[in-house]
Design goal:
single chain; mainly beta; 5-stranded mixed sheet; 46% strand; Gliding motility-associated C-terminal domain-containing protein; Ig-like_fold
Length: 634
């Protein structure tokens, strides 16, 4: 049985076969292949190739020497005659040498020499972190847990001893590469070491950040800034006389940030950004410009909203109402009265301080109030072409207004509409109209000036309707002292104006020349303080349709009574049909330009008597049906 081997604190496994310790007759030396340095301690390195050299006296026969590396002494299975070995796993490992073994049987008849256990160490690149500081310095922290000792080399500078988990600032040699190399070593395993290199970017020279905007939304401040530089640290600070240096740090900010939302902001309060070196805060200590919150209140007063604010920012200031700038005020201003308001309307306000960056207050609202009655509306009353009175008001339309329309002092309707048709008047009749307006605060105006639209009547003076008498009432104008002009308009069936002429009160005669059965008239009144023309009702005169159909004609070419046709006044579309004695249609006409020369089928006229039938509907809708005979004479 093999005994226990205690080498440098490691216990070799109990061998199950007789072994011998190294001796003059069977002894080996170990060398690092890379450095050719002899390994005299009991440490090997993962991945570092070693060479086994025979140091026996006398020398052994190399072809009869077998090696086995494993966690315990090997007794059999020796096949490796290679004198080179590369450890792959950390931990204890034992070298067993079989000299002159009988390989045929695979037994352990030869001399087994077991070396005390080696300790295999790992040698990974050491881990560390670095921060590039103010130009000319770098901060290194070794975080590696593997090695016993370390060195740090910055650029082309010297390697200096360092301690793990200790943050140290190192100078960067001038014109040196921007690299940091950390080397790790073992105290005992002198051949086990490794290095790691990281590059860094030296920061630019420090420049103050720009604090661009501070906007309040309730108790939260939205901050916007620019010009933050990589490689520096930033902190948001609040002016505080009790804090060291007069400012209290609220939070750290990333150099990549451009905005920050600050809950529960101090109002009023002044803020800034402080730029410091990432490694040595005392080396760089550069503040930004300062922005101060604006605390705004709005109070509704009679016919104006009064804004007051407090801030340590001097200004100048902008007053913003419903998203639009309504006033620009000089530095030092603390109040503004907005008189361009409408009673009952709610307005949203903000105040901006614009000097050295923008600081905007939170939004406040005020609903305008007033105890003053609104001005009386300006009313227009006019008949439509359908003979219905239309009322419309003009004047300011802002805010929630209600209009009350009255006819002869009796209320017609109360509505928010700025126009109304008087549907209660069945036929045109003299009436006077007024209106009042009530604002959102409950104040009612005085009545408007009364307007009495013109009422027009028209009648024929003779049965033929060649002369028409027109009579109208005077316009009840809102400003009686101002003159009124009247024009008589003659209208076509489609309401286009055929003729217009100035007339005077109270009546006039018209001798129409238009060949239309229904005459249409209207009075246009202007002046008298009206905002637009006021029209009378449309008055009509219907003239009687006149039709003449001859009972004989002589188509002999003498120029007299050569054709048969319809004649008359105000004759529109009609139907005239002529038939012979057998009932066959021989002629048809639908307008007065169509006449019959007596020919039938192109043949010469034949003297005889024919029957005709006439149908027509006049412009008033009256239907006429007639019949008779016509005789062709030689």
């Amino acid at each position: 049985m093999c005994g226990l081997l205690n080498i440098v604190g490691l216990t070799a496994a109990r061998a199950q076969c007789p072994t011998s310790p190294p001796s003059e007759q069977a002894r080996f030396r170990f060398f690092d292949v890379e450095t050719k340095q002899e390994i005299t301690d009991r440490f090997l390195c993962v991945g570092k190739r070693i060479r086994i050299v025979d140091a026996s006296n006398p020398r052994l026969v190399s072809g009869q020497v077998f090696y086995q590396w494993q966690a315990s002494v090997a007794c059999r299975g020796f096949t490796d005659t290679t004198s080179f070995y590369t450890p792959t796993t950390a931990g204890p490992i034992v070298l067993t040498v079989n000299i002159n073994q009988n390989q045929t049987g695979g037994g352990s008849s030869g001399l087994l020499v077991a070396y005390p256990a080696f300790e295999v160490k790992t040698s990974p690149p050491p881990t560390f972190s670095l921060v590039s500081c103010t130009p000319g310095a770098v901060q290194v922290t070794i975080t590696d847990p593997t090695y016993d000792r370390y060195t740090v080399q910055v650029g082309s500078g010297p390697a200096v001893a360092a301690t793990r988990n200790t943050t140290t600032t190192y100078p960067v040699p001038a014109s040196s590469p921007s690299t940091v190399t950390v080397a790790g070593y073992y105290v005992a395993a002198t051949l086990c070491s490794n290095t790691a290199t990281q590059s860094f970017t030296p920061p630019a020279l420090a420049q103050a950040a720009q604090f661009q905007r501070l906007s309040l939304n309730g108790t939260t401040a939205q901050l916007t800034f620019a010009g933050l530089q990589a490689g520096y640290q930033y902190s948001l600070q609040l002016r505080d006389a009790s804090a060291p240096g007069g400012y209290r740090t609220l939070t750290a900010l990333s150099a990549a940030a451009s905005t920050y939302s600050l809950p529960n902001a101090t109002v009023p309060g002044c803020y800034r950004l402080l730029q410091t070196d990432a490694c040595q805060p005392s080396v760089t200590n550069l503040p930004s410009n300062e922005l101060c919150t604006v605390a705004l209140t709005a109070t509704a007063q009679n016919n104006q909203n009064l804004l007051t604010w407090t801030t340590d920012q001097a200004g100048p200031f902008e007053v913003v109402r419903d998203g639009q700038v309504v006033a620009q005020l000089p530095a030092g201003t603390t109040r503004y009265a907005d008189a361009a308001v409408t009673c009952g309307t709610s307005y949203a306000y903000r105040v901006r301080a614009t000097g050295g960056g923008v600081s905007e207050s939170s939004e406040v609202r005020a609903t305008a109030v007033s105890t003053d009655a609104p001005p009386a509306p300006v009313l227009l009353a006019s008949y439509t072409l359908r003979n219905q009175v239309e009322l419309s008001v003009s004047g300011p339309a802002s805010g929630s207004l209600q209009y009350t329309y009255l006819r002869d002092a009796a209320t017609l309707a109360t509505t928010t509409a700025r126009s109304l048709h008087d549907s209660t008047q069945a036929t045109p009749a003299r009436a006077c109209y007024t209106a009042t307006v009530r604002d959102a605060c409950g104040n009612t105006s005085a009545p408007s000036a009364a307007v009495c639209p013109v009422v027009l009547t028209a009648e024929s003076t003779i049965p033929e309707g060649t002369t028409v008498r027109l009579t109208w009432t005077a316009l009840g104008a809102p400003t009686p002292a101002m003159p009124v002009t009247y024009r008589l308009l003659t209208l076509a069936p489609d309401n286009t104006v055929l003729n217009a002429r100035v007339v005077t009160l109270p009546t006039t005669l018209d001798q129409p020349t238009a060949d239309q059965q229904v005459l249409r008239y209207r009075i246009e009144a202007t002046g008298g303080g009206l905002p637009a023309p006021s029209y009378s009702n449309v008055a009509t005169v219907a003239r009687r349709l006149q039709v003449v159909i001859p009972n004989a004609f002589s188509p002999n070419g003498d120029g007299q009574n050569d054709v048969f046709g319809v004649k008359g006044r105000f004759l529109g579309p009609f139907l005239l049909v002529v038939v012979d004695r057998s009932g066959q249609e021989v002629f048809r006409a639908t307008d007065r330009s169509q006449t019959w020369d007596g020919r039938i089928g192109g043949r010469l006229p034949v003297p005889a008597t024919y029957v005709w039938r006439f149908e027509a509907t006049d412009a008033t809708g009256q239907r006429t049906v007639d019949h008779g005979t016509v005789t062709i004479l030689r």
